[in-house]
Design goal:
By secondary structure, the chain is an alpha+beta fold. The chain has 2 domains: 55 residues, no CATH class; 116 residues, no CATH class. Strands 1, 2, 3, 4, 5 and 6 form a 6-stranded antiparallel beta sheet that branches.
Length: 210
Amino acid sequence: MLYDTIYRHNQALSPAGLETLPAALHALNAAVDDCRRAGKPLDRDAAVLLLIRNLADVADRDAPSANDLRIRCAEERMAAIAAPALLDIAGNSVAGDPAAKRTFHYQVRRALARLAEAIGLDPDDARINTVMGRDEDEGTTELRHADLSIRVVPRSFLPDSEITFNRCRAGEHAGQVHRAPIAELLDAPAFQRRLTASIGMGAPRLAAAA
């Protein structure tokens, strides 16, 4: 059902009370919702365009220079890379939270790729796949090698066991399943020690097997 309202027009023509960034952003988001309900294109709606300009004016009023903002943005980006969100997400349910679910498994795939390289697996012989499942599922990401499987989930029923791993035989699961905390996904030496202690497979042996 499509229908139009005058709310966004009123705020665009009389933006009193929209002098702060949160207020200006809220008004713009509400206008975007109004446009969608009306079935009107955002890029040609006068109220939306006026509210975008208002938001830009408010953001620019007391902001540092663009160069300073770029420097700060780059620094914050590096901080986010240094402290992956997967550690904060782990232990919590991501079912019904698409953003958290997508972020967790994306970062797990990257971490598994780095881990595989660190423990000596040939990247051509190690497949990393994610099964996201339905909205109510939390998903699983797995690294599968001819001799090893490493699976990662956002949370486990047992503490410090978001990672499970076991030997494989010709790429198929074989042998006892072992568990490890999510933090070891980002600590290759610690995970390599666990591999050696639990299933007798260190990096040199894995590299030779590959």
